[in-house]
């Protein structure tokens, strides 16, 4: 009877020929079957693992998204212009304000810029520019660390640039009433180079959904003592536009007393 060769003939020098009548034939068949079974099992496991990997990936993405939403930044910018014209006495007041706020997690940033000018009979009798920025970092639900800087340039008075660090405390936090006290120790970086201690109280009371009252009181003690108070009553026309009436009082080397009617637009 002829010889049946499995898997092709052996090449010279590659080992003995395995035939159907050989004792090694069953072992070779079993080895081949085991190899095929291992490949099939591996592919099956890969196919089964794919949905599991997708589920894990989706869960991971969902957790990252929730974390990102929890730390979503809140930003708002408001620009306003205003003034008062007294035609009878030939007096006029021009004001401009810009406010930007940014909040993300424990970090809160605020920047305020304001410009005021008064004229009488065509002559400028008062002019004041103020830039104020602060960065708050929440330590607890009520306490926060603060870095702030304030630049003030008033007609007839030396300009001031005070930078300092300090502590803020949220005295009252309700839906309608917010009161904060901030105490900082800083340095006047221009002119006198004096050390400045600043204490401020910020109050905001929400009368209803459209009306609010804000008061910002500040005392700076250094080479000279400077007291400032800004009171503002605001009425929102809609979610973006508001009307306000503000009054600013400053007691320093040059006193300022100024009222204005303003229109504000939020972006």
What does this protein structure show overall?
This protein has one helix at 25-70, and strands at residues 74-86, 91-104, 107-120, 123-138, 143-154, 160-173, 177-188, 195-206, 211-221, 225-236, 241-251, 256-266. Helices cover 17% and strands 57% of the residues. A 12-stranded antiparallel barrel has the order 1-2-3-4-5-6-7-8-9-10-11-12. The chain is extended, with a radius of gyration of 38 Å.
Task: Outline the secondary-structure elements.
Layout: H1 25-70, E1 74-86, E2 91-104, E3 107-120, E4 123-138, E5 143-154, E6 160-173, E7 177-188, E8 195-206, E9 211-221, E10 225-236, E11 241-251, E12 256-266
Antiparallel strand pairs: 1-2, 1-12, 2-3, 3-4, 4-5, 5-6, 6-7, 7-8, 8-9, 9-10, 10-11, 11-12
Q: Name the CATH architecture of the largest domain.
A: Beta Barrel
Helix and strand composition category: alpha+beta
* Quaternary structure of the protein: single chain
Secondary-structure element pattern, one letter each: HEEEEEEEEEEEE
Stretches where pLDDT is under 50 for at least 5 consecutive residues are: 1-14
Number of DSSP helical runs: 1
Question: Strand share of the residues?
Answer: over 45%
Shape: extended
CATH topology of the largest domain: Porin
Query: How many β-strand runs?
Result: 12
The figure for the number of domains is 2
């Amino acid at each position: 009877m002829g010889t049946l060769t499995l898997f092709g003939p052996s090449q010279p020098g590659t080992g003995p020929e395995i035939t159907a009548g050989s004792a090694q034939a069953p072992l070779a068949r079993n080895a081949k079957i085991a190899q095929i079974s291992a490949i099939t099992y591996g592919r099956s496991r890969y196919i089964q693992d794919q949905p599991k990997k997708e589920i894990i990936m989706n869960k991971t993405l969902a957790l990252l998204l929730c974390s990102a939403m929890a730390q979503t930044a809140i930003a708002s910018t408001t620009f306003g212009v205003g003034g008062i014209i007294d035609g009878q006495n030939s007096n006029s007041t021009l004001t401009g304000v810009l406010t930007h706020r940014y909040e993300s997690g424990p970090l809160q940033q605020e920047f305020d810029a304001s410009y005021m000018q008064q004229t009488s009979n065509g002559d400028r009798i008062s002019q004041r520019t103020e830039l104020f920025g602060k960065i708050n970092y929440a330590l607890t639900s009520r306490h926060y660390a603060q870095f702030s800087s304030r630049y003030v340039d008033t007609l007839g008075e030396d300009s001031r640039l005070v930078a300092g660090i300090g502590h803020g405390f949220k005295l009252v936090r309700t839906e309608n009433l917010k009161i904060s006290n901030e105490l900082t120790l800083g340095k006047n970086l221009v002119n006198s180079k004096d050390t400045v201690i600043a204490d401020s109280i910020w109050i905001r009371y929400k009368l209803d959904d459209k009306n609010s009252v804000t008061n910002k009181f500040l005392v700076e003690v250094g080479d000279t003592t400077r007291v400032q108070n800004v009171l503002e009553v605001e009425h929102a026309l809609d979610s973006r536009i508001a009307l306000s009436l503000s009054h600013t009082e400053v007691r320093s080397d040059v006193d300022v007393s100024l009222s204005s009617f303003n229109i504000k637009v939020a972006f």
